[in-house]
Amino acid sequence: MILTLITLGKFFETRAKGETKGALEKLMALAPKSAHVVRGGAELELPADELMVGDEIIVRPGELIPADGVVTFGKTYVDEAAVTGESMPVLKEIDARVIAGTMNKAGAIHFTAERVKNETASSQIIRLMEDATASKAPIARLADKIAGVFVPVVITIALFAGGVWLALGESFEFAFSIAISILVISCPCALGLATPVAIMVGTGRGAQMGILYKSGEALEAGANIDTVVLDKTGTITEGHPSIVKLKTFDCVLANPPYSVRQWNRTAFQNDKYGRNFLGLPPQGRADYAFFQHILKSMDDEKGRCAILFPHGVLFRAEEKSMRENLIRADLIDCVIGIGANLFYNSPMEACVVVCRSKKPKHKQGKIFFINAVNEVTRKNAQSYLESGHIEKISSAYENYQDVEGFAKIVSLDEIERNNF
Fold first, then answer.
1. Residue 146 and residue 140: Cα distance in Å, rounded?
2. C-alpha–C-alpha distance, residues 192 and 150, integer Å
């Protein structure tokens, strides 16, 4: 029975290692199977196992980074949550380091490989965790030592007691029951089962929650922790952004009427609410009339609206004066250019204009332009935005930083110098 319980404890211990190994296998699955490499002036797609130090590697949006290296061209945001725990994408520019197994979220980059195959940071983490699962906690080693002495001693005592009763003339059944009683009462359950079960639960539960222990000593030392110091809030989050507060819009309008045969220009011109503060639109052009009405109707402090203008009507020459007044009023927060055929199957491109009645200080005097014209999927004569496109656009808007070839912060002075 003792040997059975000890064996059962070993089984639980092996199972605990398997739980952690499962988490490691998920980490290993992050490594891409192939990579785009520039060799001899040509771009080749090679298995990741054939990468060499010094290779120039190209990583496009949505692809996993296949090696550790340094960015030599381009600018992007990389999701490093799987390796570092940082929930927000990290900006990567020239000379920035990238880590194998992380996800490129935005622009295309070129980087020079410095560590490949089993030498990457993620591979070293895997080796470290494999070593940790092979190690034992100090209490487990102590339990093994005690069990190694305790079990033979108990068996010897049981045999001795049974032999004594036989020598005194008792029956074999009686002497055998005495020996078994000693074995059962002396069973080192705590030594054989409690420690392996505790390790199994600790490592298994930790692996499920994304916590990998460096060693058995670290697991045991965790019982004495009374203070936890974290370097960033992302360490204790779920590893991905989630909605905690919904930013509301006073109005979201697609295609304001831009060609109305009859509308009361005189009433609009004399509007007592000042909804002509940008100017009076030309006859038959009602889109700017609707636009000004919406802007003037927003909340003075937190007002926000988003309007889709198809056919580039925002930039018509005949409404240049109103456009200048709109820019000078510093109401435009962001302009998002979107691809053709996304709106009423129009072959022309369109734009979404996000306006705010009162912009934050760091956005005042600036307009954020996002060039999302190429963020579109075309299939079966239809064009549409997929979740990856929407995520890229919304992430750029939230991060409010320049992204080469995709997003740029432009001052109002620069816009004025370029004649609006």
1. 10
2. 11
Tokens of 357: 């009645």
Residue 27 sits at the vertex; the CA angle it makes with 25 and 32, to the nearest 5 degrees, is 100
C-alpha closest to that of 110 among 160, 154, 145, 65: 65
Each of the 420 residues of the chain gets a pLDDT tens digit; together they read 556 666 666 666 566 556 555 655 666 666 678 888 988 888 888 888 888 888 898 988 888 888 889 999 888 888 887 777 676 788 888 999 998 888 888 778 899 988 888 788 777 777 776 666 666 667 777 777 777 787 788 888 888 888 888 888 888 888 888 888 887 777 666 565 666 667 667 766 776 676 777 676 777 787 788 887 776 555 565 555 566 665 677 777 776 665 555 556 666 677 776 777 888 777 666 777 778 888 888 888 888 888 887 656 667 777 788 888 888 889 999 998 887 766 555 566 788 889 998 898 889 999 999 988 888 777 766 677 787 888 888 888 888 889 888 899 999 988 888 876
pTM: 0.44
Is 231 annotated as catalytic?
yes
Q: Cα(first)–Cα(last) distance of the chain, in Å?
A: 88
DSSP labels, 191-228: IIIIHHHHHHHHHHHHHHTT---S-HHHHHHGGG----
> Which entry of 231, 271, 333, 413 is annotated as an active-site residue?
231
At residue 176, the 3 state secondary structure works out as helix
- Distance of alpha carbon 247 from alpha carbon 134, whole angstroms: 49
Q: What share of the chain is helix, strand, coil (3-state, %, to 5)?
A: 45, 20, 35
